[in-house]
């Protein structure tokens, strides 16, 4: 082949990808939801076949409200309350990501939401990690390659964040890479969980914070200045601190935006999800391109593959079609993500040098 490979969904699937922001309970296969519901006696699903259920999740998530969007998770979480359910969902997650060309993924979930049938927090994490390892083994046996790291999430409206932070540190040498808080932002600022973040910093542990999605610049400022997060989950509202009077070259950055760019704070941007939740009005108005052109450390993510009916390849293709990106841009976004991963530096470098760069060299011809 001479010259770059055409940018299509199929070719993008072949390219190596790194994913930092993906929710385990937002990525189930519709057929698995149905089967697990039958096994555990959950009879409140809104549809009785996989195709209709997939459509319902996508349509219900398209409300334009983060709060409404989050309501869809009641059904997926309900079927993830048993050891077998957790292991299966985690295993299939790994297989699905690998089939889409993802070579590194950080998958997050909230253990506190999976205790309805008597499991302890430690047991929830153990069964989920076992599912991830099973998935990695199946991918390797089929000749593929993927590394999956688990992030543990605390719900920002609850009061268990310190407990989940302690759980994160307890399992950090067993497959858990970091900590997160998630849920509705309005009324639940990250500073409510300062003790958890102080615990993470005291133990030299990684954490990200959902900030700047449904709420504006104050959420981002608190996450950085008071909580000291390593990455921003979403962070699209950083544009509230950027003024573009004419061309992008004339953009004026406020103090928070300058800090985020200068210190290379990674932005875990999720294009389709950001439109669904109303964080941005439409894909063509998504600030991804502005932030990329201003050289923020932007990364591409799925957020919730079931609710957004998406994959990493679909997200990348949408960006290509909307902003005219080429292979070199997709490679840059992928390396941005890998540089920002919650694994040791030598491991990040090895994946960049041995997998990502050679993979995109093939695409670039």
TrEMBL record:
Residues 16-357 form the Adenosine deaminase domain. It comes from the Bacteria. Substrate binds at residues 23, 25, 183. It catalyses: 2'-deoxyadenosine + H2O + H(+) = 2'-deoxyinosine + NH4(+); adenosine + H2O + H(+) = inosine + NH4(+). This is Adenosine deaminase. Catalyzes the hydrolytic deamination of adenosine and 2-deoxyadenosine. Keywords: Hydrolase, Metal-binding, Nucleotide metabolism, Zinc. SUPFAM superfamilies: Metallo-dependent hydrolases (SSF51556). The active site is at 213 (proton donor). It comes from Nocardia jiangsuensis.
